[in-house]
Design goal:
Elements: E1 5-10, E2 17-24, E3 31-35, E4 38-41, E5 47-49, E6 55-58, E7 61-64, H1 67-76, E8 81-85, H2 98-107, E9 117-121, E10 125-129, E11 132-137, E12 143-149, E13 157-163, E14 178-180, H3 181-189, E15 202-205, E16 208-209, H4 220-233, E17 240-241, E18 243-247, H5 251-263, E19 267-271
Helix pairs in contact: 1-2, 1-4, 4-5
């Protein structure tokens, strides 16, 4: 980033008002959250909880619901950043990545002299959890697909695919988080969704969308699940080049997949100049 910027809002699950400040960082320092003086790298080792969001934690300090911000940083190609936060949860804003992206672009993005490093998938990897799974195949492009399977007729059985090198990220970034009206009370009994509203989430009641403006895309929930996947995968520490397909996956399975990538030594780190990038990145 060119200069620091502050983002304010409420946490989706905590309902607390939160302020976070994004600050430029040196090359090769990575993305690091700082809370109460404790540095928590945005890296899979620190991912500890996946109950309806992804939480990183260290030395008793935690930061919840980081996935939308992480996806925003991925889309914008930001590898190094300091994120100071005064609460337990990243603000939900409008429930998508859009507002993060707009605020970061307004602050300015600075290109550092060091070459960008990619994690290039070298072998196929699979992780499963019942009927849910993630498959990854070697590819020279970063391709992400999510397929949903719901009894709900609006969401239904739909699939969406995004290629970071070819597609405009605004095909994914505006997609908002969602829930079912019938689940809201149960979530709040668990101490979750305290900050949720029609201003920051799509709410389905049976076969109806309660938000007066409706959906941003016919398949908005599927695109949002893809947004979550992309944000969680950035906990690898590097942008991943491979063909990734998730069927009904969620935060816990995403984390399991990232850990397996590391355990299986399934990727190699390569500078941009070392790989053939068929890159035509389109941004909004």
């Amino acid at each position: 980033m060119s200069r620091e910027t502050t983002i304010n809002g409420i946490g989706l699950h905590s309902g607390d008002f939160v302020s976070l400040t994004l600050k430029p960082a040196k090359a090769n320092s990575g993305i690091v959250f700082i809370k109460n003086g404790v540095k928590i790298p945005a890296y899979i080792t620190y991912a500890k909880s996946f109950e309806f969001s992804t939480t990183i934690e260290d030395l008793g300090e935690k930061v919840q619901t980081i996935e939308h911000l992480m996806a925003s940083l991925y889309f914008l190609g930001i590898d190094n950043l300091i994120i100071e936060i005064n609460g337990d949860e990243v603000p939900i804003l409008d429930g998508s990545a859009n507002e993060f992206i707009n605020l970061i672009k307004k602050a300015g993005i600075k290109t550092l002299r060091e070459e960008k490093v990619y994690a290039v998938l070298e072998k196929d990897i699979y992780v499963y959890d019942g009927d849910k799974f993630i498959e990854a195949f070697v590819s020279d492009e970063p391709i992400f697909s999510f397929e949903a399977k719901y009894n709900n007729q609006i969401i239904g059985n739909k699939k969406f695919t995004f290629n970071q090198f070819k597609d405009n990220y605004n095909l994914v970034s505006p997609a908002r988080t969602y829930c079912f009206y019938e689940e809201v009370e149960a979530l709040r009994n668990l101490g979750l969704a305290k900050g949720g509203s029609l201003e920051n989430a799509v709410v389905f009641k049976e076969e109806t969308v309660l938000n007066p403006e409706g959906l941003r895309f016919d398949d908005e929930p599927v695109r949002h699940k893809l947004l979550d996947l992309i944000g969680d995968l950035y906990l690898l520490g590097y942008p991943l080049i491979g063909n990734i397909y998730s069927f009904k996956g969620g935060h816990a399975l995403n984390a399991k997949f990232v850990r397996k990538l590391i355990e299986e030594k399934a990727f190699s780190l390569k500078k941009a100049s070392e790989i053939s990038l068929k890159k035509n990145v389109k941004v909004a």
